[in-house]
Design brief:
With about 150 residues, the protein is α/β, with parallel strands linked by helices. The protein has seven helices and five strands. Helix 1 (about 10-20) runs parallel beside helix 3 (about 45-55), helix 3 runs antiparallel to helix 4 (about 60-75) and helix 5 packs across helix 6. The two termini are about 15 Å apart.
Length: about 150
């Protein structure tokens, strides 16, 4: 099975790092797929900045440094450029979702992983990128890699 290159939605990233856990330990299992190289994870520079702002609220310099260091080792950063910004402004999606979709389209990534796929739904059919939930990716990749029984 080919390694899928996915952008981690900023909302999912924040939920996994600072919010409530996903059902059925999906967050932990998803991170394991990134750590094991079964998925290649990407994140926008804007999402990393948002994570940094949330981490700063903890008022603990060690937490901030550790969080950002681990993220930069695990996920590849994708700077948002003017071309992506213009594409996002033409989209019918909300700006943060449109920016992420534009990054995926321009960089040729396989899709976006999110816990809120309806935020990426449009009526136009133009420029849509594949959107995966953690459960979908885990169903495809986890069996055999994380000690789970094979589907059969």
């Amino acid at each position: 099975m080919a390694i899928r290159r996915v952008l981690v939605d900023e909302g999912l990233l924040l939920e996994l790092l600072f919010g409530r856990p996903l059902p059925l330990c999906q967050g932990d299992r998803l991170w394991d797929l990134f750590l094991q190289g079964q998925l290649q994870g990407y994140v926008t520079d804007l999402a990393l900045g948002l994570v940094g702002r949330y981490a700063m609220r903890s008022h603990n310099a060690t937490t901030i440094a550790t969080t950002l260091d681990q993220l930069s080792n695990l996920l590849r950063c994708c700077p948002v450029d003017q071309t992506m910004l213009h594409a996002a402004q033409r989209s019918q999606l909300g700006l943060s979702f449109a920016l992420q979709a534009a990054v995926v389209a321009q960089l040729g990534l396989d899709g976006i992983v999110t816990h809120r796929p309806l935020d990426y739904a449009t009526d136009t059919g133009e420029g849509e990128v594949p959107v995966y939930t953690p459960g979908h990716l885990l169903g495809e990749y986890a069996a055999g890699y994380l000690g789970l029984p094979e589907k059969g």
